[in-house]
Specification:
Number of strands: 13
Shape: globular
Low-confidence stretches: 293-316
Number of helices: 11
CATH architecture of the largest domain: Sandwich
Largest sheet: 7 strands, antiparallel
Number of domains: 2
Radius of gyration: 19 Å
Mean pLDDT: 87
Oligomer: single chain
Strand content: 15-25%
Strand order of the largest sheet: 10-7-4-9-2-1-13
Distance between the termini: 5 Å
C-alpha cells in the first residue's frame, strides 16, 4: 500500500487543495480492503486498473463506483471497500468550485456522481487518458496542472467573501453563524446562500464540521494519550463533542479511532507534511505550500514518521 501527495502549481493553489495517488494490491481472499475517511470538501477521483470499489456515505452506497467520479462535499464519514489498483485524485476548494463548476456545491453534498456529468465527457476522457499514459506517479501533478489550468473559468463574483469564509473555517473560533456573518459584514441569509453555493452546506454545519475535525485530529494524533482536554475550547463539555461525533462519524471518537484504517492514518501524516494541514476541511490556502516551479525537486527534505517513510517538499510518498 502506498500514498503520495503533491502540491498544485502556484497558479492553482487557491483552487486545488492538493493531488493524491493511492496504490494498493488486491487483498487475499477477494473480500476487499475496508478503509474509512473523514468528512471532506469536494474531490475528483479517477480509478486506474482498479478492482471494483464500493463507497458508502451515511446510508447511501455507491457500488460500483464510477471510474471517474466527483465526490461532493461531505458531512459524514466515508467507508470504502476496494480490491486493489490505483486511485488518483485532487481536492477542490470552495474558490475552486466557483472556477470549475457551474452548479451549486449544495446539489452534490454527501453524493458521488460520474465526473462526466459535471465536467463533460470530453474533458473527463482526456483526463483519464492522460493519467493512464503517465509513466510513473511523479508525472501526475504536471498532468493535472495542465488540464486544470485549461479548464479553469473566470473568478466568481463571490470570490472575496468565499476566501474570507475559508479563512474563518481554517482557524479556531466561535462555531456560530452570527459571529461568522459579523466578521464577513453580511446578513445571515446572504451568508447562508454563499455557503451552500460554494461550500455545499449551511454555515452552521461548516463551522461545526471544522471545529469537530480540529478536535478529532488532535485526539488521533495523541493516540493512547488522547484526552478530551484536547478538544476545541468552544465545546461546552465532552458530551457536546460526542454529539458532534455522532453527527459526523455516526459513532464515538474512540470507536472510530479503534477502526482499522491504514489509508486514513497514513494520509493524515502525509498531507500535513506536504500540504500544511491533515485534512481538506482544515486546509488553509494562505498558509499551504505550493510549487513555484513545476519541475522543482521532490527531495527537499525527508522525515521519519512512525513506521512510514515520508518525502516532503513537492510530494510525500508513504509506503505501509
Amino acid at each position: 500500500m502506498a500514498i503520495r501527495y503533491d502540491r498544485p502549481a502556484a497558479v492553482l493553489a487557491d483552487f486545488i487543495t492538493g493531488y493524491h495517488v493511492y496504490r494498493s494490491s488486491a487483498p487475499p481472499g477477494g473480500e476487499g480492503q475496508v478503509d474509512w475517511f473523514l468528512p471532506a470538501t469536494a474531490n475528483v477521483r479517477i480509478a486506474i486498473d482498479a478492482g471494483p470499489i464500493a463507497v458508502s456515505i451515511g446510508r447511501r452506497t455507491y457500488d460500483p463506483l464510477p471510474a471517474a467520479s466527483l465526490f461532493g462535499p461531505t458531512s459524514q464519514a466515508l467507508k470504502a471497500t476496494t480490491h486493489g489498483g490505483v486511485m488518483i485524485g485532487f481536492g477542490i476548494s470552495a474558490l475552486g468550485w466557483g472556477r470549475l463548476m457551474h452548479r451549486p456545491a449544495g446539489d452534490f453534498r454527501n453524493r458521488i456522481v460520474p465526473l462526466e456529468d459535471v465536467l463533460g465527457r470530453g474533458f473527463t476522457s482526456r483526463l483519464i487518458a492522460a493519467l493512464q499514459a503517465a509513466s510513473d506517479d511523479t508525472e501526475v501533478a504536471s498532468i493535472l496542472d495542465a488540464l486544470l489550468l485549461e479548464r479553469l473559468g473566470p473568478p466568481h463574483a463571490d470570490a472575496v467573501l468565499v476566501r474570507q469564509l475559508m479563512e474563518i473555517l481554517a482557524s479556531d473560533g466561535p462555531a456560530d453563524m452570527a459571529s461568522a456573518a459579523n466578521r464577513l459584514d453580511i446578513a445571515t441569509h446572504a451568508l447562508r446562500r454563499l455557503s451552500v453555493r460554494h461550500f455545499g452546506f449551511p454555515p452552521k454545519m461548516l463551522l461545526m464540521r471544522a471545529r469537530f475535525l480540529r478536535s478529532l485530529v488532535r485526539l488521533m494524533a495523541a493516540g493512547e494519550a488522547a484526552d478530551y482536554a484536547l478538544i476545541d475550547d468552544s465545546y461546552f463539555d465532552a458530551s457536546h463533542f460526542l454529539r458532534d461525533s455522532s453527527t459526523f462519524l455516526g459513532m464515538t471518537p474512540r470507536r472510530f479511532m479503534a477502526l482499522t484504517k491504514p489509508f486514513l492514518d497514513a494520509s493524515l501524516r502525509a498531507r500535513d507534511a506536504v500540504l500544511g494541514s491533515p485534512t481538506q476541511v482544515l486546509h488553509d490556502i494562505d498558509a499551504a505550500p505550493h510549487r513555484e516551479v513545476r519541475q522543482q525537486s521532490a527531495n527537499e527534505s525527508r522525515h521519519l514518521l512512525g513506521s512510514h517513510r515520508v518525502i516532503s517538499g513537492d510530494d510525500a510518498d508513504i509506503r505501509c
